Amino acid sequence: MTESPAPKKTAPDLFTWEFAGNPYPAYAWLRDNAPVHRTTLPSGVEAWLVTRYADARQALADQRLSKNPEHHDEPSHAKGKTGIPGERKAELMTHLLNIDPPDHTRLRRLVSKAFTPRRVAEFAPRVQELTDDLIDRFAAKGEADLIHDFAFPLPIYAICDLLGVPREDQDDFRDWAGMMIRHGGGPRGGVARSVKKMRGYLAELIHRKRADPGDDLISGLIRASDHGEHLTENEAAAMAFILLFAGFETTVNLIGNGTYALLTHPDQRERLQRSIAAGERGLLETGIEELLRFDGPVELATWRFATQPLSIGGQDIAAGDPVLVVLAAADRDPDRFAEPDTLDLARRDNQHLGYGHGIHYCLGAPLARLEGQTALATLLTRLPDLRLAAEPTDLRWRGGLIMRGLRTLPVEFTPRQDGSGSLDGDPKS
After folding, report:
1. In 212-298, where does DSSP find H-type helix?
2. Quick one: which of 67, 92, 120, 209 is 20 to 30 A from 379 by CA?
3. Are strands 36-40 and 225-226 parallel, antiparallel or unpaired?
4. What does residue 291 show for φ and ψ, rounded to 5 degrees?
5. pLDDT digits 0-9 by tens, 188-206
């Protein structure tokens, strides 16, 4: 009697609304059965997904994988579908996410001079002020949508302050950013229009800063030089754009996903509250890293393109093929992390890939960590009985490809009157 052939292993459905709610079981299947998996994305682009930690770390540092979209061997139907909508037409391509050495080395060195850890440390009081002012606006109401009322405006106003966007213009940036962050559920043209408006504004702002520089990041970008090399106006605009774009949505999701994880893991939340109340910072610092690993703000690393034939995890990749490293899958790889599906805020051996690895490691990570720590510590201190006001299964996640974040996060709490009382004041004042 002949044995029946083993049943064919079928990959789970990816990028559906159900998948967006909880992609981790599908990623576990891929790690076990197809760790480097070719798939067709919702845009129609075919790409390789890299899901195991060791392979992901290798790919993130492999300079045969270019960040430059010019290396994409794309069919006509995929033209222009691998980056931020509208950035090419708006002449915003020359930023750190789209270039390789030596240009990447030069631009990152120049930008680093203006975006230093010292500047981030000096910015901490302003982040705390923004955090408290935003909470003041809803503390007496007993309810809030923590995405709309808190996680979204905090990093927008913070990065605008850091860049040097005048306070009176920051609501325009909030509107443009709101369209960009809704890209998963809105018309693609809306994102491109917002990018175009932002590009026009940045060109005007750079012109003003050249004439009257200040102590801000855009002025620093303009002044930055290295061995006589200067940022061109297009490079300065592109860098300001990507620092804004990458510097706000990741933090929106860090705060939103992190708060949601704490509210659905009450033992870990109570442990963190006790630590903060005791004046300790150790658990807050390791806790932010664990939240980045457990359900981080960036699901897939940004696009890479093979410049030559290569192998990842034993899988042959052709020159010109797009490669997407699935950070969310790699950071739950049991071969790297003990009990990876368990949230443990005290986890020590936690070299997660939430902010990348190698030469493209996120330049704004210190600011995002500062904002995340400040936001969560202040929420848990000022609203100690914070709780979800919806069933977890009723929450919806945005349907983008790269980022992972909630559309809304409704919460309830005992109304508080211990803030400044400025419920209808301007958080930017």
Report:
1. 217-223, 233-263, 266-277, 282-295
2. 120
3. unpaired
4. -65, -35
5. 456 677 778 888 888 889 8
